[in-house]
Specification:
By secondary structure, this protein is α/β, with parallel strands linked by helices. It contains 14 helices and 15 strands.
Amino acid sequence: MSIYKDIATQFIDDILTGKLNDGSRMPSLRQLAKQRTISMSTAVSCYQELESQGWICSRPQAGYFVTAPKPERAKPEMTQFVSRISTVNRNYALHSSINGPLGISSTDNDPVAITELERSFRRAIKRIGNRLNRYPDTQGEPLLRDALSRHFSKLALNFSADELIITGGCMPAIKSAIEATTQPGDAIAISSPCFSGIIELLGQMSRKIIEIPSIEDGVDLSQLENHLKKGQVKAGIFCTSHMNPQGITMTAQQKQQLAELANFYQTPMIEDDVYLELSYGEHTPLPAKYYDQGGYVLWCGSISKTLSPGYRLGWCLPGRYIAKYQQQSTAASYGVSVPIQIAVADFIESGQYAKQLRRRRNKLATLKHDYLKYLAQHLPSYVKVSDPLGGMVLWLQVPDLDSNLLSGYLDKESVDIRLGHLFSTLDLYNDCLRINIGYDIDDEVKSELSRLISAIELSRTK
């Protein structure tokens, strides 16, 4: 047996016998090489072997941790159908009055980030000067646009500050993109399932919808192209990384193809990239905008998931639609708070935003592991659970689920989740539900999960 495999086997024995517990930190590669008197390449091979078998996982900037293989559990099935034009004909309850930890996709800020943000705000007040006496620049503060341009250039997404427009969050950015590229009555393509907020927004704006089925590596782009060929699609809205709710990330090939379709058919594609920087692995995926040659992809993002939803700060890179976009954005809003823009720019420039992102990704990776472990121990084996590579939600599928019964039990037990039917205009996903995994599994979360699991067991028709 090779040396690295021999050492890997010893580690597996330690995990199985309890000498190394689930979640324990492994020695660093340098420590392992020194402890075992082996080369760095042998140490790397050992950890690669353990990772490939699921015994350990790496967390960016944190090291390697024990992650005992999870019990085998099937993932939710991809619902396949022939896409067609539909309309929004039901009320979408985005904000539950219960407001529990499993509902809205969110997480806590860590104390270090809060302290550094306070410092950024103090510095921002000194930098603003007499700009407090003027209304905000409707395109956004140059300091923030410059900071975002430099930040994303490190991810290989290059754009000038003049190309970017600051908005009051990602949803306002998407709304202005819809207004700049379509008219009431136009059909817009979306993924299926799709974030319920997008569906509600399209209904409010009197746009029709064409749902494109999700597949393992993204969405069914062949069906999208069929509608483009027929001239039925006037625009598309797609979350391309860690899609809400099912957690899929389009492959690089899919993102490139989406951008190419937009350019070939000269049809705008609005990219909702609010989860882009919340990957659990070492690398942040490139957006579809990276592959956009003609400016037909309108790239939208925000800090609502990566920093705080309370600041109501987002952006759009509208490409060739910048003039029309700026008209719509100005009409909808007279700008974003100057102190917030300057403070966030300072937070980015100081390097604290990047550090905070690493901590948040590490935390979410740990939380996903904790939730999957808890659900594996307590959920009936027939429940299928997603295993996303980023974001902060899980998608569950329960065979033979009566969603009306489940809804009644959840209301009675005051459990806040998002039922599957909210993520489609069609009669789909009635056996599915979404839960947030952004908070530690404390007593409150355990109580919510326990009541949810009981409600699921009581709501099956078999």
